[in-house]
Write a structure and sequence with these properties.
heterodimer; A: about 260 residues; two-stranded parallel ribbon; about 20% strand; B: mainly alpha
């Protein structure tokens, strides 16, 4: 795969090490896990690479990566691979902090993104046209948004398209009339996450299954993972790492 | 003698091999793009690819018309901004300024070409986009923003090639015109310009090629909505942005459709380059 970029694992080791490649949404977290794993297991090398969910899945299938990372569910024709959920990620609907809107219903969000509601005054806000910001087709985040929010309807094709969580956040932070969606862990003070269906987007509400916009982060392998890969997966699923997961802004897979 | 001859032959062979490797890269890229891109085009029909407005790759509709028109709009916009400024600059530097000033200014202008496109995009996002959004309305990420930034990006190409072709006009033309009593502007307009015409046209076409191929800066400031823009303030998606935006997550036919986008782009750029080569060949001796 041409699009898989090798990130510097900080060791420059001649050996290939364990290659973990895929989703750019999972990558920053996997980088962190790998860093801690390598510190705790001197001599082991984990190489985390980006490229996107599909690239990661393809790399796992072709053996270019030992583990593929995906931020979307596997498609039916990808189900021959083994998957394990390593964390959950919340999805937040974000607007500009100065926007007076605090809460949106599922139906309102649907209509905004489908282009049926195009002015904030319909929702009780300013009389400005809404700038809808979405992710590119094929993105795991967009796939999750489509499935959980849009369901059957389409995101308006007049929507601005950006290719990362960061750029969506940047546009929403700068444009008072815009609305977008990003990973909950990446929400910062420059944007405002609206209450969705009356529920505030936070970890407590996700734990209590009140906030419903969540998606899995997957590790994908072709067949049962090799010993080195299994060891890393076990490490990621272990309690200390999962506590770190929460600290990093994701939702751990273990249940109290 | 024979040893020298053999060395000569060896070096020629080595050079030929290296030269061929450069050419073969082009051949391999061409074969690869067409090999990956054309099957899906023929599967769904060329007409659907070129004329459909619907780009919903996950639902298997691959209409590239909004992107083709988007690329043409943005490129035309870049020319509207880049050509007048570029030509004016080239004329001033060749006809109305001292040699010393030209020697300082021309390298500075050429430095513009060395600034990475992501920097242009960044400046666009930070300065131009908010300006357009606040003063003119719309989301700011727009045809206008992309045109202005691309217009600036093609300036060095237009200016330096135009200067070269104006300077290539024989001195006697200018001297003859001035001797006949024409003013400097009349000389520039009626003698220098027509004489350098083919080079100037080539500079414009090369600038056009740069504009249509630019990706990074455009993704950052054009908004990338896959619709035909209805005004200068609407977002737009170009062919290059279409590929770069979606390649990370594209799989299967979606990925092939992105290669098909590359095929269309490839053809457009080949046509432009051919025109550029043909026009610049007809240069004044």
């Amino acid at each position: 795969m041409l699009f898989v970029f090798v990130s510097d694992c900080g060791r420059g080791s001649a050996q290939r090490g364990l290659v973990v490649a895929g989703s750019t949404s999972v990558q920053p977290f996997a980088d962190h896990w790998a860093e801690v794993y390598m510190r705790e297991n001197p001599g082991r090398v984990v190489n985390v690479q980006g490229g996107g969910s599909s690239a990661g899945i393809q790399a796992a299938r072709e053996g270019a990566a030992d583990i593929g990372m995906s931020s979307r569910e596997l498609k039916p024709d990808e189900k021959d691979l083994l998957e394990v959920i390593v964390a959950w990620d919340g999805l937040a609907i974000i607007i500009h902090p100065r926007n007076p809107i605090e809460e949106l219903s599922l139906e309102q969000v649907q209509n905004i993104f489908a282009g049926n509601i195009n002015n904030w005054d319909i929702l009780g806000g300013s009389g400005h046209l809404i700038t809808v910001v979405t992710r590119e087709e094929g993105s795991g985040t967009r796939g999750a948004f489509q499935e959980m929010v849009m369901k059957g309807s389409r995101v308006s094709r007049a929507a601005i398209v950006q290719d990362s969580n960061g750029t969506v956040r940047e546009i929403v932070a700068n444009d008072p009339n815009s609305i977008g969606y990003i990973s909950l862990g990446l929400v910062n003070e420059k944007v405002k996450a609206v209450r969705f269906e009356g529920i505030e987007a936070n970890f407590e509400n996700i734990d209590q299954k009140k906030y419903r916009l969540i998606r899995p982060f997957l590790f994908v392998t072709k067949g049962p993972p090799k010993a080195a890969a299994q060891d890393f997966i076990n490490f990621v699923l272990s309690r200390p790492t999962q506590e770190m997961v929460r600290h990093d802004g994701l939702i751990p897979v273990f249940k109290e | 003698m024979t040893r020298l001859e053999r060395n000569e032959k060896l070096i020629r062979l080595a050079l030929l091999l290296v030269a061929f490797s450069a050419v073969s890269t082009l051949v391999i890229i061409t074969i690869f793009i067409f090999g990956e891109g054309t099957p899906v085009m023929f599967k769904y029909g060329l007409k659907k690819f070129l004329l459909s407005l619907d780009w919903f790759p996950l639902e298997k509709s691959y209409g590239l018309l909004p992107m083709i028109i988007g690329s043409l709009f943005v490129t035309a916009g870049a020319l509207v901004i880049g050509v007048p400024f570029g030509l004016a600059c080239a004329i001033v530097l060749t006809e109305f300024s001292s040699k010393r000033l030209r020697r300082i200014l021309k390298p500075i202008i050429e430095l513009l070409a060395g600034i990475p496109s992501v920097v242009y995009g960044f400046i666009g996002v930070i300065i131009l986009v908010p300006f357009i959004r606040d003063r003119l309305g719309g989301p700011g990420l727009s045809v206008l923003a992309a045109s202005i930034i691309l217009g600036i990006m093609i300036l060095p190409t237009i200016i330096s090639i135009s200067i070269d072709s104006l300077q290539a006009v024989p001195r006697s033309y200018r001297e003859g015109s001035i001797a006949l009593g024409a003013t400097r502007w009349q000389t520039t307009r009626m003698v220098m310009f027509p004489a350098a015409k083919s080079g100037i046209i080539a500079s414009i076409i090369l600038g056009m090629g740069r504009a249509i191929g630019e990706t990074m800066a455009v993704i950052m400031i054009a908004g990338n909505a896959a619709v035909i823009p209805r005004s200068l303030l609407d977002p737009v998606r170009t062919l290059t942005s279409n590929i770069a935006l979606e390649m990370g997550y594209a799989a299967g036919e979606h990925r092939e459709a992105l290669f098909a986008t590359g095929v269309i782009l490839f053809i457009i750029i080949m046509v432009l380059n051919t025109i550029a080569n043909l026009t610049s060949k007809r240069r004044i001796p």
